[in-house]
From TrEMBL:
Organism placement in taxonomy: Eukaryota, Fungi, Dikarya, Ascomycota, Saccharomycotina
Localization: Mitochondrion inner membrane
Primary residence: mitochondrion
Function: Mediates the uptake of pyruvate into mitochondria.
Pfam families: MPC
Name of the protein: Mitochondrial pyruvate carrier
Membrane-related topology note: Multi-pass membrane protein
Entry annotated with the keyword Transport: yes
Length: 125
């Protein structure tokens, strides 16, 4: 058997493993699309970790999202069948929200900064 025939056989077997009826059926369920659509929350939080100024972080919303993800991590394993994709989504969100919460606490409670903003003088003609 040549190398190209062997790689063709391997790729065909891999495709059969990935694109079988069971996997395709799973892709059409809310068990898959619910967590996939929910991934927008942790993605936004991760992007905000670098791009959002700490003074604009909402403490109550960060706390709410942290509690929300902690609760739903438990429920993603309590349902049958267990939804590991949803669990992963909430683990990532939990870590991102804890990072945002740390930035919020650091900015508002642990560091001193000048709260006075310079007043812009208007030009007079």
């Amino acid at each position: 058997m040549s190398t190209s025939q062997a790689s063709s056989t391997v790729s065909r077997k891999l495709a059969q493993q990935i694109f079988n009826k069971q996997n395709l059926k799973y892709l059409l369920t809310t068990h898959f699309w619910g967590p996939v659509s929910n991934f927008g929350i942790p993605v936004a939080a991760i992007v905000d970790l670098k791009n959002k100024p700490a003074d604009t972080i909402s403490g109550p919303m960060t706390l709410a999202l942290t509690v929300y993800s902690a609760i739903f991590m438990k429920y993603s394993l309590a349902i049958t069948p267990k939804n590991y994709l949803l669990l992963g989504c909430h683990i990532i969100n939990e870590v991102a929200q804890l990072g945002q919460g740390a930035r919020f606490i650091n900015y508002h409670y642990l560091t001193k900064h000048d709260d006075t903003k310079p007043i812009k003088k208007e030009k007079t003609a």
